[in-house]
């Protein structure tokens, strides 16, 4: 593939995510693709691994239980400037994407994503963008994911969620009662 980086001998990959089932699935998938994977479930653990054994590649969740994944990206940039970092988040926003890229992330992907999209982003040559995902989320799905995220952040309080989303409470209740769109 001419549009992808040759990973050569250094196939070290650091995965940082607090979603343990996702982390395990992704680690297994990336190992099958030839990467030497280390995993971390927190910012503190990610920073420690980044300092102890700076990887060539990294995939880091933006929001972790003990802090912001961009803190791990900063440590990776200090310890290994050529590290290619992909930042993942379940809550995509332009401001956080810009912040991630300014700090040194190679790319920024919204969850849900799969190992193929992540591999393409990690191995894209230079500033070339990876190909668009084969199965991107629909606009309805993105809206639904956003509403669910705000709902969870408001401790499942419908009135508070509706206020923050500038939405009528009954409209929100109808949306929450429906199944997620595809």
From TrEMBL:
GO biological process: phosphorelay signal transduction system
Residues bearing the modification 4-aspartylphosphate: 61
SMART domains referenced in this protein's UniProt entry, alphabetically: REC (SM00448)
Domain Response regulatory per the UniProt entry, residue ranges: 12-126
GO molecular function, one term: DNA binding
UniProt entry keywords in alphabetical sequence: Activator, DNA-binding, Phosphoprotein, Transcription, Transcription regulation, Two-component regulatory system
Its job: Member of the two-component regulatory system RegB/RegA. Involved in transactivating anaerobic expression of the photosynthetic apparatus. It is a transcriptional regulator that is responsible for activating expression of the puf, puh, and puc operons in response to a decrease in oxygen tension.
NCBIfam families for this protein: ActR_PrrA_rreg
Protein name: Photosynthetic apparatus regulatory protein RegA
Species for this entry: Pseudooceanicola spongiae
Lineage per the UniProt record: Bacteria, Pseudomonadati, Pseudomonadota, Alphaproteobacteria, Rhodobacterales
